[in-house]
Amino acid sequence: MAEPLHIKDHSIEGLRERLAAAGERPYRAEQLAAWLYRRGVEDPDQMTDLGQALRERLGSEWGLSALEVERVDRSSDGTCKAALVARDGARIESVLIPEDDRLTLCVSTQVGCAMACSFCATGFMGFRRNLRTGEIVDQVCRMRAFAPEGRPISNVVFMGMGEPLLNLPAVLEAVRLLVHPKAFGLAPRRVTVSTVGVVPRIAELLAQVPVNLAVSLHATTDAVRDRLVPLNRRYPLAALLGALRGLETVTPRRPVFFEYTLIEGVNDRSEDAERLPGLLHGIPAKVNLIPMNPHPDSPYRPPSEVAIDRFLRILAGRGMTVTLRRSRGPDIQAACGQLALRG
Ligand code: SAH
After folding, report:
1. Cα–Cα distance for residue pair 123/337, rounded to 1 Å
2. Could you tell me the pTM of the whole model?
3. Whose CA is nearest to atom 17 of ligand 1?
4. Ligand 1 test: best mutation among 108, 136, 159, most atoms within 8 Å of CB?
5. At what angle do helices 168-179 and 133-143 cross, to 10 degrees?
6. What are the residue numbers of the active site?
7. Which residue ranges in the chain fall short of pLDDT 70?
8. Is 337 in the pocket of ligand 1 (CB under 6 A)?
């Protein structure tokens, strides 16, 4: 039997084609997107403009939702983490982060991760499988229910479990739904895709969708980065930064966001801070410092407040745009690098 049509696996354009192939009218794609993504309605019986026959197909033959909420944890700072279960039983996590002026959702792109970064809890899980497009966008659909006072999700960051660029086709289809005016309708600048540095896929991503690019840097020498990010042995700093330098879409108005997890005694010395501006020379950049969030699988610790402050001041003193990301939700293991599910 042919695999049933999973509606959320497709961009609106892709869904038009698939509906036509299934004998439905292509414009039903826009109507379905309005129900599912704009109005947040999942029950076919409520989709009053679709016609009885199509509603029945949606109810019996085709799949609408991809994930179920298994468990929700709320942090004292308002951050909300959910464990979500896919149809095959795979579990992932999403994190909803309320701030004054925005409501950000951090989505996962894979079950586990193959990158094995030595400080990241997801890295210790190993890789299970890629998520489908529907499983990526359904994180937005499910997590909307936990928004404070019904606020809309304003930003989506691909910074949950997994390496987005190793699941690029599904990620691209998901981004297309996020930014399509008839689907979620987010401005592309409100979507950020983070990569550990899968060099050959970076230009491809930006050529397809005008999202923000974040790059997990974490070190200023190959010796240190090799230890933290095993992929660095394949794409060392010169290759990574060289590729970023050649990107036409990166401009001062659309810089690269460099994530730098500060780890005590590993990458937090003054020499590291002093090396960074020269390393990033020629790349419009914003540096985001993230003090290491500890977890049981890793021996690494965050630097002292004094060391963090020193690092930040050196960068700012060299004219770099630098921010300190105080991770949200550490009390519920929802902070950067703490996403992992066992069992
Ligand atoms: N695989 C992609 C997407 C994940 S983003 C990437 O690596 O960019 C998650 C971010 O949290 C990455 O920058 C990652 O390096 C960082 N991170 C991982 N473990 C962390 C930890 N224990 N403390 C702080 N940041 C961590």
Report:
1. 9
2. 0.96
3. 337
4. 159
5. 40
6. 93, 336
7. 1-2, 342-343
8. yes
Atom 19 (ligand 1) nearest CA: 337
Is any ligand 1 atom within 6 A of the Cβ of residue 292? yes
Cα of 74 from ligand 1 centre, angstroms: 21
- Whether 119 is in the pocket of ligand 1, judged by its Cβ within 6 Å, is yes
* pLDDT for position 293: 92
Query: In this predicted model, what pLDDT tens digit does every residue of 97-155 receive, in sequence order?
Result: 999 999 999 999 999 999 999 999 999 999 999 999 999 999 999 999 999 988 999 99
Residue 148 three-state SS: helix
User: Of all protein residues, whose CA lies closest to atom 11 belonging to ligand 1?
Assistant: 336
Distance between CA 176 and CA 13 in Å, rounded?
9
Which residues make beta-bridge pairs with 86? Answer: 67
Distance of CA 23 from the midpoint of ligand 1 (Å): 44
Whole-number pLDDT of residue 342: 61
Look at ligand 1, atom 3, and give the residue with the nearest C-alpha. 159
Buried b (16+ CB within 10 A) or exposed e, 301-333: ebbeeebbeebbebbeeeebebeeeebbbbebb
What's the Cα-to-Cα distance from 127 to each of 226, 239, 340, rounded to whole Å?
Answer: 20, 25, 11
Q: What torsion do the CA atoms of 174, 260, 226, 164 make, to the nearest 10 degrees?
A: 0
Do residues 259 and 215 lie in contact, with contact meaning Cβ atoms separated by under 8 Å?
A: yes
